[in-house]
Amino acid sequence: MEMLAVKNLKKSYPGFALKEISFSLPEGAIMGFIGRNGAGKTTTLSCLLNLVHPEGGEISFFGLPFAEHEWEIKQQIGFISGGIDYYPRKKLRAITQVTRSFYRDWDEEAYRRCLSLFRLSEDKTPSELSAGMKVKYALTLALSHKARLLLLDEPTSGLDPVSREELLDLFLTLTREKGVTILFSTHITSDLEKCADSITYIREGEVPYSGGLKEFLANYRLLRFPDGISLDAGSQGVIGVKREKEGYSALLEKGAPVPDGAEVQPANLDAIMVHLEANDLFRQEGSR
Amino acid sequence: MKNLVAKEFRLASHPTAYLFLGLSTMMLIPNYPLSVTFFYPCLGLFFICLNARENRDIFYTMLLPVKKRELVYARFFMAAVFQLGVVALCVPFLLLRSLYPPVGNVVGLDANLALLGFGLLLMGLFNGCFFPLYYKDPRKVGKPFLVGAAVLFSGIGITEALPHFVPFVRDRLDTALFLFLPEKLLCLFLGAGLYALLTGLACRKSAVSFEKLDLS
Fold first, then answer.
1. Do the Cβ atoms of B62 and B215 come closer than 8 Å?
2. Which of A80, A116, A248, B115 gives a 20 to 30 Å CA spacing to B146?
3. All domains of chain A, ordered by start, with CATH?
């Protein structure tokens, strides 16, 4: 079952536009939503929840169109934007009391379990919580109303490596053991390699790739070559030649011949993104 | 909707809005422009909207299972509770004021039911100006309040000047509490009707504007 399907989503602002974005998310998966700052990740997520009005396209959750089933859909999703940043001076108890009244399937036992698991005190206020604890409280609220789909907007940014690892473990547990589905927007791509099943890559308002993470990684290899070797972005299958501290690096497309003198390594998400974006920059400069 | 109203009072309301309810005691002040009393619940609404912005109330609420325009309806409901609350709380103080000298009010309208009618009209005018502007962009609270307050204070000036210039107001409405009750009751009901009309129109217009707004 598709937990989320986005078809031809469009939205334009002066100087930026989402251009017919499409992707879908199967049940029980973690999908990474990646792209550089300003690529359109947050605008897309905002469109999903009607915070921003799309100019075209279709959005459906659990097979239901969002526009006609907003209430029903919101009962089953949790949106977490880098932890809670609302009502920073109210006690968690007060926020929970108000929040729980909106949900049909609020599970008080699950809420208490999460509080205990995350060592959260209801007597604290959001302003007294660390960045990681804020995300955990937001997750607690989402899990207590039995959200089947979590939309996470940069939940790990600003967290230390240990807290990030903890959260990633939690996401894996939620998907593998509880059947929760997660759409996870981030620019910390190393997080995704640890937990994501698939990715949707957004670049300048377009989605050049949406699919399996392994397949995406298998499409590229990383080339490293020293100074003095003549190689440019026009070489067959070479993408985004970029100066490094020593020599150059570039991406090599699957099946393309390895240039003489170059060292080939597996490419990670970070390297792929950086070189694909560098390729754009190269093209833009070339067209001037 | 019931949950949203509860949320308004438990999270979004500001302590000053409750404190300003107590300013209905201003009815006891002798020789004072008493219609100023009705400015305070409006000031309380300004603080509530400011507080909501600082606490990212709209973002929090939009993630809950609610429809966008219901946020507007809940806020108007709270506004009406505070504004009508002040009017209702004025009644015992009007009675109390009638028990001690000096009789009347040399500044403007006497403390009576007609004053409450004018007060309702003034708050309706404020709602009609403030909320539709505010819901065009809830990040900007100051300008809508300045416009609303300017209209409100103009109304207060006119209200307090009426007994000095309009014979009907001087002879019938600006009199002791229990004199000319039918005229004063008519003024009260007219004020209430106009309050309901202006607030209802403002609510509808605000909901339409807010619905169209991108909350990015």
1. yes
2. B115
3. 2-215 (3.40.50.300), 221-287 (no CATH)
